[in-house]
Write a structure and sequence with these properties.
heterodimer, A: 195 residues, alpha+beta, 5-stranded mixed sheet, 4 helices, 25% helix, 22% strand, B: mainly alpha, two-stranded antiparallel ribbon, 6 strands, lipid-linked peptidoglycan transporter activity (chain B), transmembrane helix (chain B)
């Protein structure tokens, strides 16, 4: 073995080591740059602010309650509207619990009508492919919101998403209990917890 | 009865949600990476032989093939019981392990050890045991939440494992540290496995207690500090790690346990005050130990004043540290070449100082490659925990990956003279069975966690 051969082999070995590292990094690039955004064909006139587009979708669904579609205007998030959990309990439908809610139904958006069965385990919602409900549109954050179980009641928490999570039209700022059959809107998608 | 299925068909048509299942895609990526890893590992052993012996001999077959077969076995097990597990963890662990074996084999050649005397052969056997245990873990534990039931049993197991080396019959003192047990010709470092039991215990404990640890407290200097009565756990852990320093004379292990606890409580509560408290407590304890205990004091002196001839020539002085640094320096950018340096001059070149040996023969480029592999492994662990749905799994994932991170920092930081040198093993690489077993169990648990994360009911919009 000449010195030169050994040197070349050594360089080849180091190169191979780094090639492996870059293959791994390339394969996990979605971790670094986030999931690819998919344009929705159904989305109302591309480039429109998310609030308007989604408010239309939401109001179409909310037939039961005469709720004004005055979703918080863009500067509003500085003064978040807090939803007191006891209030919803008094007037609205009963809170969703693990015993009375059995499915999550998509009520508006591109996959309207599809559903997922709820177990007794928390769910995550977001654009990342490891979420339980993957919503790949422009309005959804990588890790957008999660449904948790407190005691045996379903609670929704917004994970500091850019465009917000709206429970019955109100932006979720702190974890709130979810009433049954009440729309939760994320971007252009709304869903409800049902029996 | 022919119309058995009739009532079923009437059920809601939306019942069958389309679930995206892409199981083999991940496993095929893993298979590709494993094949690449096996060729890199074989290449490393061949290079060692060319460099140190000048020819290739059949040992390549035994060293390379043994590890490869086991890793393929694990891959096949994953295809059956954890199809959605993360595809990167296994190849990265196998590559680190393989580079470690090649380096240990290189030191063996220099010290002319063969057969059962050879550390590399023993390392391959230990790798076999470790991967077999890892496969068993992934086969037995089908759901990581089972571990939450054994929260307090895990605490007990950790305590017993920690105390075992103190027993007079089987405990053994090597190089001043009393962290070994010795049965027959078989020695083991139970503290390595104890870190997994501790991670399970901390995760289970913090999930149930974190509200009282995070909600209440008084505000001071812009941080919310916990109440005095909530300080119990951190003080107990502090006392435990201090007793490890005093009685087992092992600084690194103490730092590992205490750091693990502080990070897990920080992740569970999200309050920086725990980190401030923890670091403050440990620094206070360390400085106090440096005043009282001579071996701790020696470590500090060797660290501050490594190149002083008095320290360099003293027994238990900075000779090893300085030789390691000289080795790294002679390696330069691309190293002396595998098998062509003199890493064996440094004491313990195959275990504590394996990173210095690698730095000498692979150079800065190779050392950074190894560090990048650790970084990817740990980042994967954090990623898995971040994506997890249940709090126990998330905390466990953070704890397990952080032990690997902290261990790397303590060892590599010690060797490169960033922090005082303490004896811990470099995960997956250093010669030593207990460390391999513990880290391969961590691999199995992380794979199991990642499979659970991807295996939930899913709806893609």
């Amino acid at each position: 073995m000449s010195e030169l051969t050994l040197l070349i082999l050594q360089l080849a070995f180091l190169a191979l080591l780094w090639v492996f590292i870059f293959i791994v990094v390339y394969a996990m690039r979605s971790d670094l740059f986030g999931q690819r955004v998919r344009k929705l064909r159904e989305a109302p006139a591309g480039g429109q602010p998310s609030h308007n587009g989604a408010a239309q979708g939401g109001s179409a669904q909310q037939t039961a309650q005469p709720q004004s579609p005055a979703a918080p205007p863009p500067p509003a998030p500085k003064v978040p509207t807090f939803v007191p959990a006891p209030g919803t309990e008094l007037s609205g439908p009963p809170r969703a619990t693990t015993s009375n809610a059995s499915r999550l139904v998509i009520t508006s958006g591109p996959k309207s009508g599809s559903e997922i069965s709820l177990g007794s385990e928390p769910l995550t919602i977001g654009r990342s492919s490891d979420s339980s409900v993957v919503i790949r549109d422009d309005y959804t954050s990588t890790h957008h919101a999660r449904l948790m179980i407190w005691g045996d009641e379903w609670v929704i928490q917004d994970l500091d998403s850019t465009n917000g999570t709206f429970l019955d039209g109100n932006r979720v700022t702190a974890p709130v209990h979810i009433p049954l059959n009440t729309p939760i809107r994320i971007g252009a998608t709304s869903f409800e917890l049902r029996r | 009865m022919t119309g058995v299925s009739a009532p079923v068909a009437v059920e809601t048509p939306t019942k069958g949600v389309r679930r995206i299942r892409v199981p083999q895609k991940l496993r095929n990526l893993e298979l590709f990476l494993i094949i690449l890893v096996c060729s890199v590992n074989a290449f490393a052993v061949v290079l060692v032989q060319f460099g140190a012996l000048g020819y290739a001999d059949s040992t390549v077959v035994y060293l390379g093939a043994g590890l490869s077969i086991l890793v393929f076995g694990m891959h096949i097990a994953l295809r059956f019981v954890a199809t959605n597990a993360d595809p990167f963890i296994l190849p990265i662990a196998a590559l680190l392990n393989g580079i470690g074996i090649a380096m240990i084999y290189r030191i063996d050649i220099a010290e002319e050890l063969t057969g059962w005397e050879s550390t590399a052969v023993r390392q391959v056997v230990w790798t076999a045991v470790a991967v077999a245990i890892s496969i068993a873990v992934i086969l037995v534990i089908r759901n990581h939440r089972v571990l939450q039931r054994y929260t307090y049993i895990a605490m007990l197991v950790a305590a017993v494992l920690l105390l075992l080396p103190m027993l007079p019959g089987i405990g053994q003192e090597i190089n001043g540290a009393r962290v070994w047990i010795h049965v027959g010709s078989f020695s083991f470092q139970p503290g390595e496995v104890a870190k997994i039991a501790l991670a399970v215990f901390f995760a289970g404990y913090l999930v149930s207690r974190r509200d009282s640890l995070s909600m209440v407290g008084t505000k001071f200097l812009g941080m919310r500090f916990p109440r005095a009565r909530d300080l119990g756990p951190i003080l107990v852990l502090w006392a435990l790690s201090m007793s490890v320093i005093i009685f087992q004379r092992d600084l690194g292990t103490a730092l590992l346990y205490f750091g693990l606890f502080v990070v897990m409580i920080y992740v569970a509560t999200g309050r920086a005050s725990w980190v401030v408290l923890g670091v403050g407590l440990f620094l206070a304890g360390g400085v106090l130990a440096g005043q009282v205990l001579t071996y701790v004091n020696d470590r500090f002196t060797n660290w501050f004043d490594a190149f002083n001839p008095a320290n360099y020539e003293a027994v238990g002085g900075s000779y090893q540290l300085v030789q390691g640094l000289f080795g790294l320096a002679s390696g330069g950018m691309i190293g002396t070449g595998l098998g062509q340096g003199r890493p064996d001059i440094t004491p313990l070149a195959q275990s504590d100082y394996i990173i210095a040996s690698l730095g000498e023969e692979l150079g800065l480029a190779g050392m950074f490659a190894v560090l990048a592999l650790y970084l990817l492994f740990i980042a994967r662990g954090f990623r898995i925990s971040f994506a997890g749905q249940d709090d126990f799994g998330r905390l466990l994932g953070v704890g397990l990956s952080f032990t690997v991170a902290l261990q790397c920092f303590i060892v590599i930081g010690g060797v490169t003279r960033v922090i005082p040198l303490t004896g811990l093993t470099t995960p997956f690489m250093a010669a030593g069975g207990s460390s391999l077993v513990a880290n391969w169990i961590i691999v199995a648990l992380l794979l199991r966690l990642s499979d659970t994360v991807r295996n939930q009911p899913r709806l893609v919009i």
